[in-house]
Amino acid sequence: MGRKILETLTESMFYVLMALLRQARCGTEIADFVAARTKSRVRLGPGTLYTILAKFEEVGLIRETAVEGRKRTYVLTDEGRARYEEELVRLRSCLADAEEEAQP
């Protein structure tokens, strides 16, 4: 993850934020949500997922809410929700550009 975390999000990062929009989840629940939501097009391995979670927690996009043994639960912060919304606007703009260019 060489790019700055608050610039363009990777697809995996975007889906991690999406997974936390409506409820707190642990890592396994996040990975399951992403796989189900994308029909397994995006699959988060433990290394990728926990690297993203650590980075998001470090910059304040998520916070840990509970720890039960090895299970850690995360919630989206207000900053994380705002970052998700910013990325959604960017992605919609990209899609609009692509659709416009595809017109004959």
UniProtKB/TrEMBL annotation:
<dbReference type="InterPro" id="IPR052509">
    <property type="entry name" value="Metal_resp_DNA-bind_regulator"/>
</dbReference>
<dbReference type="Pfam" id="PF03551">
    <property type="entry name" value="PadR"/>
</dbReference>
<dbReference type="InterPro" id="IPR005149">
    <property type="entry name" value="Tscrpt_reg_PadR_N"/>
</dbReference>
<dbReference type="InterPro" id="IPR036390">
    <property type="entry name" value="WH_DNA-bd_sf"/>
</dbReference>
<protein>
    <submittedName>
        <fullName>Transcriptional regulator PadR-like family protein</fullName>
    </submittedName>
</protein>
<dbReference type="InterPro" id="IPR036388">
    <property type="entry name" value="WH-like_DNA-bd_sf"/>
</dbReference>
<feature type="domain" description="Transcription regulator PadR N-terminal">
    <location>
        <begin position="16"/>
        <end position="86"/>
    </location>
</feature>
